[in-house]
Specification:
By secondary structure, this protein is of the alpha/beta class. The protein contains 13 helices and 13 strands. The radius of gyration is 19 Å and the shape is globular.
Length: 377
């Protein structure tokens, strides 16, 4: 168990936030000709990042200098650009070769995604499906699951385009002999896809040898939406527990109290989070007052399981409205407050949380335990 008061732990979480944030950079900077981000979205992601990213959000140079000294120095090994699913990601290795980061970009238009995201589920069958989930995969949620894990169809489609990098590039790097940790990172939707990549990595044949090879697999997500159902979560956490004895597996899920994205898709729609959160509480009367605290439960924890936060933020009065909707949010709702709160989803807000947060009043600093390795009940 770890406390945010421990410098090493604080740096681990900060590194995950920075690498997740960096996925919105372009390989050689955001030029006007190649930049996919609109002016509004570019301001959203990089308006407060001048002391972190080099040049005009130049990923290669930012990694090379360790994000202006915030992290270790990294070398960009592979820049991934899948236009068919509008997916970008990068694989980088630390200067000492001991760490490999696979960071996946989230949505470039978060507001549009939040409003229009589909909640269709499909079977989690990465060993069966090819590069596509199939033309009838959206019907899987209408058929009996027979105990098979189910995941968000949109996230799964993106994962399938990235699967080969999990099975080949990452495995080959690990087999080279120097790697001690593989980190899967992502902000927002990128965190959801990173969860699927991580899940696949620890369950493929190579993943079964992580303990023997003394390689740690870490999942670090920032403001991630929910990804799969109870069966998917339980099977993933069973595998995580099997690797935990050798300290070869860890999940770090970072959320804050005012970010609505981690509340969708809703629990009532059949989704559940993976892992207990590093949870930051932002004061209602002063955004500069940020706290972290310990949950008494030793189980992995899905905050707001009753969906009240989402219902309130979206102005929805009935849970049945969510259940009937095929979207993350039903049409016709009043979402002004929800969208205005998207600033709390910014990567820079999360970096502010980890650097400014103090223990919740009434708790001793040494008692503030942030992440545990226990699995879901």
């Amino acid at each position: 168990m770890s406390s945010l008061n421990q410098p090493k732990r604080k740096k681990e979480i900060e590194d995950i936030i920075v690498h997740s944030w960096a996925s919105y950079c372009e390989e050689h900077g955001n030029s006007e000709d190649e930049n996919r981000l609109s002016a509004v979205d570019h301001e959203f992601f990089f308006g407060d990042s001048t002391d972190i990213f080099s040049g005009n959000a130049d990923l290669t140079e930012s990694l090379r200098c360790g994000f202006q000294g915030r992290t270790e120095k990294f070398t960009l090994l592979e820049w991934i650009d899948k236009k068919s699913t509008d997916t970008e990601a990068y694989i980088a290795q630390s200067e000492d070769k001991k760490k490999v980061v696979f960071s996946i970009r989230g949505s470039e238009s978060l507001r549009d995604w939040t409003m229009n995201a589909q909640t269709w589920q499909t079977r989690w069958e990465p060993k069966v499906d090819g590069d596509s989930a199939g033309c009838c995969s959206c019907l899987d949620c209408l058929l009996p699951t027979n105990g098979k894990p189910m995941v968000h169809l949109g996230f799964y489609k993106i994962f399938l385009k990235l699967r080969k990098y999990v099975e080949t590039t990452l495995v080959d790097l690990c087999k080279a002999g120097d790697v001690e940790e593989v980190i899967f990172a992502g902000h927002s939707l990128g965190g959801a896809v990173a969860t699927l990549c991580f899940s696949h990595f620890i369950q493929i044949p190579f993943g079964l040898t992580l303990s023997v090879r003394k390689i740690k697999a870490t999942l670090g997500t920032v403001g991630s939406p929910r990804v799969g159902d109870d069966v998917f979560v339980s099977k993933l956490l069973e595998r995580k527990q099997a690797l935990a004895t050798g300290n070869c597996c860890e999940i770090i899920r970072v959320v804050n109290s005012k970010d609505v994205v981690p509340t969708i898709p809703a629990r009532v729609q059949g989704y559940k989070h993976v892992g207990r959160p590093v949870y930051f509480e932002i004061s209602d009367d002063d955004d500069d007052k940020i706290f972290f605290y310990a949950e008494e439960s030793k189980n992995d924890y899905d905050e707001n399981e009753n969906d009240e936060k989402l219902l309130t933020a979206a102005g929805i009065s009935q849970k049945s409205d969510l259940t009937k909707s095929k979207q993350a949010l039903p049409q016709g709702g009043d979402y002004n407050n929800l969208l205005e709160g998207m600033s709390y989803h910014k990567p820079v807000t999360y970096l502010k949380c980890v650097t400014k947060a103090t223990p919740k009043s009434g708790l001793k600093a040494e008692d503030v335990e942030i992440v545990t390795n226990e699995i879901l009940r």
